[in-house]
Amino acid sequence: MRRLALVVVLASVAAACSGPTSVSTTATVISTTTTEPPTTAPPPPSTRPPGPNETLTSIGDPYYPGLGNGGYDVARYDIELTLLDGGEIAGFTTVTAVTVAELDRLSLDFGSTEPVGDGLVVDAVRVDGAPARWDHDGEELIVTPPAALAAGATFVVEVEYSGVPFAATSRALPIGVGWYEGASGVRYVIGEPDGAHLWFPANDHPSDKATFSISVTVPAGTFAAANGSLVDQIDDIGTTTFVWEEDDPMATYLATVVVSDRYTLVRDEAASAETGIEVRNVLASDLADDPPAPLGRTAEMVGVLSGLFGPYPFDEYGVAFVDGFGSALENQTLSLFDTELADAPILDLVLVHELAHQWFGNSLTPRRWEDIWLNEGFATFAELLWIEAEGGEEAYRDEIRERTRQVRAFGLGPPGSPAPSDLFAGGVYQRGALTLVALRDEVGDATFFDILRAYTDRYAYGNVTTADFVTVAEEVANRDLSALFDAWLYDDQLPD
Ligand code: TRP
Ligand code: ZN
Description:
Layout: H1 5-17, E1 72-83, E2 89-99, E3 106-109, E4 120-127, E5 130-131, E6 133-137, E7 140-144, E8 154-163, E9 167-169, E10 176-181, E11 187-190, E12 210-219, E13 223-226, E14 229-236, E15 239-250, E16 257-260, E17 263-267, H2 269-275, E18 278-284, H3 285-289, H4 298-309, E19 316-317, E20 319-322, E21 328-329, E22 335-338, H5 347-357, E23 365-366, H6 373-410, H7 426-443, H8 445-458, E24 463-464, H9 466-477, H10 482-490
Parallel strand pairs: 1-12, 18-19, 20-22, 23-24
Antiparallel strand pairs: 1-2, 2-8, 3-7, 4-5, 4-8, 6-7, 9-10, 10-11, 11-16, 12-15, 13-16, 14-15, 17-18, 21-22
Helix pairs in contact: 1-6, 2-4, 4-5, 5-6, 6-7, 7-8, 7-10, 8-9
Bound molecules: tryptophan and zinc ion.
């Protein structure tokens, strides 16, 4: 019941939205080894100023005050996981960060206020190599370094932990986020919006992006994938360690792992050659042998979207099909799909939707959760663009009419400021997309796509707010568009 809830969110509108035929959318025990802090230099520190509402345990997003923490900015996460017998993991996460103010204590988000069993237990914490005191309570791991950290200093926190990871109910969705295990035995992470700190200690807020290395040690014969590129595979006695590197900034909620003894990495050489990025999918053998047809169109989809949005932002792309979460999720460079979607008639649209998130959401990440329509409205709009690329303007207009009818029929609310418990509501998706349709109609195609490309270019790899998008639109169109945005984003009434 619960696992289908999100499909309902994505597809409720959808099912009805696109007419009768298509729906739119939408072990072996190894002790934790202590390694040195990363030898590669971290990327240049970001220069986030301390936010006005920051506290020790909040980065100051009024939507979810418990998420994120004040006083520092993470540059890099090095996550090392070892999968043990019985679902247990041993984790070792190194957080390299820069203080934005002098700090005598700092907090990381880690764990849950409603743990299943003992949850993940912290075994040791070090700051700059020296043992540090810590207090782990609910979702916060408060660390006291041996000496205060100066403002602007780079520092390294190492956290060793172990236990059985689990999924906990999200603040924003009637669904669990965190660590999943499918009926097939595949284990994977669903992070959006508040699941990342259920498997690694993090500044778990999208306004603090960082590069990642994720290394997963599994029994020999098991495969482990994560974001980015597989940079090393180390075979040891009875184990293999897969080392993945995401060297472009990534929000914590987009970090993922997929682990299974039935999966392999399937490289798509033709699509890689055509797109210039590394296209690879993570598939169980049955799907690897007989992949769904739309998966063969990745290069085409990247071509259409990059023609409209600007260059694909990352070095890799692909999807993993896993069972048990009932939906699809745009993890950076490696979107996750429920296997239920493999033979769904809407698979092509969901593939386009998650691919579009690599620009809108992953490269350009909302600075605050309230602006989630900058992800979902744009990704849903991309579905319309794909329909147009395939079927021409008439198909595009028909789809808009159908979705408008559904927005009315379901009384979907405005996308600009959804309730915190309703971040992924149908209105955020469908009215968000219609907002872009209205903008396109208002300013014309040439200006509209100039706006999109100016926006993706200016804010690539960074954070955005609704005001940033409106500013770019008004600059490029050279006119005031506030009435249009106000009506489409915030009015209860659906504009004409
Ligand atoms: N971002 C997802 C989408 O593409 C929706 C989503 C958010 C989601 N959190 C999730 C899906 C958790 C599954 C599980 O629309
Ligand atoms: Zn989406």
